Amino acid sequence: MEKDAEILKSLKRAAEDGEWVSKNYDELRERYEGKVFAVKNKRVVESADTVEELRTKLEAKGEKMGFLLIESIPPKDASFIL
Known about the structure:
By secondary structure, the protein is α+β, with helices and mostly antiparallel strands. It has one domain. It is built from three helices and three strands. It has helices at 2-23, 25-32, 51-60, and strands spanning 35-39, 44-48, 69-73. The protein has a three-stranded antiparallel β-sheet with strand order 2-1-3, with helices on both faces. A hairpin with a 4-residue loop joins strand 1 and strand 2 (44-48). The longest helix is centred in the first third of the chain and has 22 residues, at 2-23. The protein starts with a helix and ends in a 9-residue tail after the last strand.
C-alpha cells in the first residue's frame, strides 16, 4: 500500500512538473536547448547531452530516473520526419 502511495505521489508531481515545464518553456529553451533534463518539484535537477549521460548523473546523485519527469528541447534547426 505504501508503494502505491509513493507511485501516486510521483505521478501527481510529474503532472505538476509537466505544467511547470510548459509555463517556463521559453526560459528552459534558452538554457537547455539541445539537452535532455530531469525535473523534480518544479526544478531542473540535472541535464546532459544524452539520456545515458543523464541517467549516470542522476544515479550519482541518488535520484531514480523513473520518479522524475524527463524532458528534452531539440535544437532550433532540428528536423523531424513523422
